From TrEMBL:
Keyword presence, Transmembrane helix: yes
Record-stated family: Belongs to the autoinducer-2 exporter (AI-2E) (TC 2.A.86) family.
TM region(s), chain numbering: 12-29, 64-89, 158-176, 210-233, 239-261, 273-295, 307-340
Protein's recorded name: Putative PurR-regulated permease PerM
Entry's Gene Ontology cellular component terms: membrane
Chief site of localization: membrane
Record's bilayer topology term: Multi-pass membrane protein
Organism: Aminivibrio pyruvatiphilus
Length: 374
């Protein structure tokens, strides 16, 4: 059988494969984000799963180790996210109610009633603006109404989040238990030579490991340090605001300053110069330095790729996929550069082989001419 005949016989198979693959993609596509989060969380805790499997659960099946590791994911990753979402919704409802009280007081008794709801120094700043620009009342009222709509939308998003949590939990269990078989299968079907396929997966693993540990660990350390500074400055709820700093530390161009800077500004506005300056200096010198040092150490060092590539992957991934893109972007860029480098090497090798064959042909033709002349 010739190669052309073999290709013709394979066409029906690839046609059926493409059709079924498109249907499978349509089934999986709505779950892409929770499945991607499952892969990231499973990858992050997989070393602990292996220690459990080889340690306390070595005489039991992999189900026990996978269930224990999945429980730790729920306890230390999913549950804190749920708590933060619930606290944020509760605080949003309280803020909306407070704004409605301020509006009701303004409508019934005028601006003087603000003194019963707001600090005196703030009322002194607000009163002239309320007198000069009456439209501010309407703007505040419209903003409060939009806030109520957003609160309802956020409640719906919270329900969707809980739905995703159930998918993530189930997926993490099977990814942990059967992860080595899945990776082995993917290695076999990747259309690369065995050596390049192994290097491809090692490159992706190294970059993803560096990004996951670098971004997550840096965010956790920054959040803990920021919460400590919040407590030292004398502000309330340091645990809640430390958790918020951890969240915003994941977002480039916002970072923990999105939380501690307004806190420092508030302390300075109420004439608490000591607390305000402490929090400001702590945020810049301690929290900011921790972020720069740890990210540079883990991400660029662990993945063995240029920091600019990591930067483009993080920022571009954030724009394309949201928070998930922080972790997907750098590995995608790293694997693209890996394939590009392999293409460069293959092209260079092919050119050298062509030059060698051309030189051999010229040498043989020259030898033939020399023999004819003699």
């Amino acid at each position: 059988m010739t190669a052309r005949e073999g290709g013709r016989q394979a066409l029906p198979f690839f046609g059926i494969l493409a059709a079924v693959a498109s249907l499978a993609l349509a089934v999986v596509f709505p779950l892409i984000k929770p499945l991607a989060w499952s892969v990231l969380l499973s990858f992050s805790i997989y070393p602990l799963f292996m220690k459990m499997k080889e340690g306390p659960f070595r005489r039991r099946s992999d189900n026990f180790s996978a269930a224990a590791a999945t429980g730790m994911i729920v306890l230390f990753a999913v549950l804190p996210c749920i708590i933060v979402v619930v606290l944020a919704l509760r605080e949003g409802v309280r803020l909306h109610g407070f704004v409605l009280e301020v509006l009701a007081a303004m409508e019934s008794t005028g601006e003087g009633a603000l003194a019963t709801l707001l600090p005196e120094w703030l009322v002194e700043h607000i009163r002239p603006w309320m007198v000069r620009y009456p439209a501010i009342r309407g703007w505040v009222r419209e903003t409060a109404a939009r806030g109520a709509v957003e609160a309802v939308s956020a409640a719906g998003d919270a329900a969707l989040f809980l739905y995703y949590v159930s998918i993530i939990t189930v997926s993490c269990f099977f990814l942990l238990r059967d992860g080595k078989y899945i990776v082995s299968y993917l290695r076999e079907i990747v259309p690369l030579p065995s050596g390049q396929a192994a290097a491809f997966f090692d490159r992706g693993k190294g970059t993803l490991q560096a990004v996951v540990y670098g971004v997550l660990l840096t965010a956790l350390v920054q959040g803990a340090a920021g919460g400590l500074g919040w407590l030292i400055a004398g502000l309330p709820n340091p645990v809640l605001f430390g958790a918020l700093m951890t969240f915003f530390a994941l977002i480039p161009f916002l970072g923990t300053a999105f939380v501690w800077l307004p806190g420092a500004a508030y302390l300075l506005a109420v004439s608490d110069w000591t607390g305000g300056l402490i929090l400001l200096g702590w945020g810049v010198l301690v929290v900011g330095t921790i972020g720069r040092v740890l990210k540079a150490l883990f991400i660029s060092g662990g993945g063995k790729i240029h920091f600019f590539v990591v930067f483009v992957g993080i920022v571009g991934g954030l724009a394309a996929w949201g928070i998930l893109g922080l972790f997907i972007g750098p590995p995608v860029m790293s694997l693209f550069l890996f394939l590009l480098e392999n293409y460069r090497i293959m092209r260079k090798t092919r050119n050298l082989q062509q030059e060698a064959h051309a030189g051999a042909d010229m040498a043989s033709s020259g030898a033939g001419v020399y023999d004819q002349e003699n």
